[in-house]
Amino acid sequence: MSLQLIKASTSDALTLNEISKRAFDSDLLVGAPSTGGPPGYMSVPFHLKMARSNHLFKLVDNGLIIGGAILFLDDEKLNIGRVFISPENHRKGYGIFMMHEIEALYPMVKEFTLDTPIWNIRTKSFYTKLGYTEVRRDTEFIYYSKQRVNN
């Protein structure tokens, strides 16, 4: 299989950090008030810590890392802390693939949760298209949930 979502190792942290920085900084094109991202989005020590604690995943296409995810499993609930894809690979179906793979990796999970900045028009329509529903919002974020139908 040429496209895979697999656990990242510490040796992947530098590459994933670079992709994360470019991906989140590109949000300037979809409503971000400035460049930036979630805490640790451009921190190699943060990505190393996530890899060591088995929260960091990489999206690999023909051996090349093109994206990543940070996932937090809590019993039957999975929080999708973040997903990111290199900007040159946006709008090519990789995000949909990654989200489907995340759900497939955790068959025991009954609820998937995530949040996105309130200004991000790209992610709001993306998550809604994948079956996530808004559960609440505050001044900064929209919070989504998706229940597994057949568990």
Q: Could you explain the architecture of this structure?
A:
- This protein has four helices and seven strands, in the order βααβββαβαββ.
- The chain has 151 residues and is an alpha+beta fold.
- It has a single domain, classed as Aminopeptidase, CATH 3.40.630.30.
- A seven-stranded mixed sheet has the order 1-2-3-4-5-7-6.
- Strand 4, helix 3 and strand 5 form a beta-alpha-beta unit.
- The longest helix has 13 residues.
- The chain is globular, with a radius of gyration of 15 Å.
- The mean pLDDT is 93.
Secondary structure topology:
Elements: E1 3-7, H1 13-25, H2 44-52, E2 56-61, E3 64-74, E4 77-85, H3 94-105, E5 111-117, H4 121-129, E6 133-137, E7 141-147
Parallel strand pairs: 4-5
Antiparallel strand pairs: 1-2, 2-3, 3-4, 5-7, 6-7
Helix pairs in contact: 1-2
Number of domains: 1
CATH topology: Aminopeptidase
Nearest-integer average pLDDT: 93
Report the major sheet. 7 strands, mixed
Number of helices: 4
Helix content class = 25-40%
- Low-pLDDT ranges: none
Which structural class do the helices and strands define? alpha+beta
Beta-strand residue fraction: 25-35%
Rg, rounded, reads: 15 Å
Name of the CATH homologous superfamily: Gcn5-related N-acetyltransferase (GNAT)
Along the chain, the helix and strand elements come as EHHEEEHEHEE
CATH secondary-structure class: Alpha Beta
